[in-house]
Amino acid sequence: MIALAGIESCKTLAEFLVNLIPGGVVFGLVEKDTFVWVKASDSFAMDIFTVGNKLNDDTTTMQAIHEKKVLTQNIPRTVYGKRVSIVSIPVIDDNGDTVGAFSIAFPKLHPVAAAFNDFAPILAEMFHEGAFLYMSDLTKFAYTQPSRKFDMPTITVGKDLSEADVAYRVIKSKQPIIEDVDASRVGVPLNVANYPLVEDGDIVATIGIVTPKKTAGTLREMSENLENSLTGIAAAIEELSASAMEIHSNEEDLNSDIKEIINVSEKINEVSDFIKEIADETKMLGLNAAIEAARAGDAGRGFGVVAEEIRKLSAQSKSTVPKIKQLTDTIKQKVEEASEKSNRSLDASQGQAAASEEITASIEEITSMSGELNTIAKTL
């Protein structure tokens, strides 16, 4: 208990300590049943601790006065909207009568909440793209800590939790939640992790961290674009490879046809040689016929005319043979040149088909790497 004469010293000490106690505190002096003096820290206050406010008999302070003993009581959240501990110390006069009480109220904080202002500023700056840390009680946001690179201005201390908030769902499910949020909310993709804080078997608060995933989103988008581009290129290469195979097949058929033409040209030359032989023999027959016609005199004159025509026809046939041979030789030369070009084209088409297969294999490997890059981006 406190002597009435020592109250001023207690008030002086309270004013010194009010902003030094972590989590905040509020001091109050009650005379009979009414607050006559109150001193609250900057970070914590209670409506009931108001000068002029009268207390009900069922309050901790009034019970301490009636029972003439120091009472400490933990008040659940349902009474004042927050968990608090209240210590009430009776004040006695010189006669030993209780004339009031000196009450101290401070928030009953989870250890994480008590240390939030110490670790949160450090932790928020440890992420490459920055981070936003926050804590909530069971109904509203209680602490926030942005980083220099990233902030969530829509989350403010005192804002009520809504069903859309991860903290609200964590409280309802009593399980941690980690999820990705698309860029529609704040312009960049986010990762939100929230965990329940338990005390005496009950959830009393949550702690969450929001990290931007801009780099990961950019990597994922690049990976998806790369994969789509590679898919298109692979399809084009496959089509090119199929065309190369068709060209290769056509070149083989063309090469085969050219060989047949060469064979036909050789057969034409053989026919030309045969015609030359016939022309030579026909010439000899015409010569012999002319000789016999001369021997026969007038009786063989008509036969001589025929013999002369045979010799002329033989001469014409013989003179045609070199022309045919020249033409067939020219055809053969051109065909051989075409055959050589066809062979080169055949080799080139084979090389093109092989190169297409190598390119396709390389693209498949790059596509696989793109998929791995996308997987890595999702883990960032």
UniProtKB/TrEMBL annotation:
The keyword Coiled coil does not apply. InterPro entries: MCPsignal_dom. GO terms for biological process: signal transduction. PROSITE patterns: CHEMOTAXIS_TRANSDUC_2. It comes from the Bacteria. The keyword rRNA processing does not apply. Pfam families: MCPsignal. Residues 213-380 form the Methyl-accepting transducer domain. Keywords: Transducer. This is Methyl-accepting chemotaxis protein. It comes from Desulfosporosinus acidiphilus (strain DSM 22704 / JCM 16185 / SJ4). The lineage of its organism: Bacteria, Bacillati, Bacillota, Clostridia, Eubacteriales.
